[in-house]
Design goal:
By secondary structure, this protein is α+β, with helices and mostly antiparallel strands. The chain is about 35% helix and about 20% strand. The protein is globular, with a radius of gyration of 23 Å. The N and C termini lie far apart (about 60 Å).
Length: about 180
């Protein structure tokens, strides 16, 4: 092979490599470039609860800047909201529970159940530090929830119905959407 032929071959390989790199995208298609909250259609932003969670983060981690947090609520059922976020994140269907039919790998989106009173009792000390006066005896009942795993530049999503509003000391029969890193 002559020098000219080798030079042409190397030049054409370099051109092809550069053309391939030029068309390569740094980010996966459909992924936002910066951290974003995806709002469920028709959901209402709950500013007071969102700020309370940010304050709680400041109490728990005083040396850190509170992470971005957003709480919304909607009349839509938990299943519909969970399916929406699961599809938005590219996860497909929501697993019936965290075991995903006894799989070793925890699914990225799954349903769970809980007890309002148990959950509120667990944060009583934090509420006192935040000087939030709430009647925890009103936190009565079971709830259904879904967990959607965080994805690059997208927050972890917790969906729950009903939820206990610690500022109003009442159970709210709506679906809460909590988004946080």
């Amino acid at each position: 092979m002559s020098r000219i032929t080798r030079a042409l071959a190397l030049a054409s390989i370099a051109v092809l490599a550069l053309a391939g790199c030029k068309n390569e995208k740094a980010q996966q298609p459909g992924e936002p470039q910066s951290f974003t909250f995806t709002q469920y259609p028709g959901a209402v932003y709950q500013s007071q609860l969102s700020e309370l969670v940010k304050r709680a983060n400041s109490v728990i981690h005083p040396d850190q800047t509170p992470p971005p947090v957003a709480i919304y609520d909607t009349d839509a059922p938990v299943d519909a909201v969970a399916e929406y976020y699961s599809k938005e994140y590219g996860y497909g269907r929501v697993a019936p529970d965290a075991t995903n039919n006894l799989s070793v790998v925890k699914p990225p989106a799954y349903f769970r159940n809980g007890d309002l009173q148990t959950d509120v009792k667990a944060i009583t000390g934090l509420l006192q530090q935040l000087k939030v006066n709430t009647d925890i005896t009103k936190a009565q009942g079971k709830y259904r929830a879904a967990e959607i795993e965080a994805k690059m530049n997208r927050p972890h999503v917790t969906i729950q119905r009903p939820y206990f509003d610690v500022l109003k000391s009442q159970v709210i029969d709506r679906t809460m959407i909590l988004m946080s890193p």
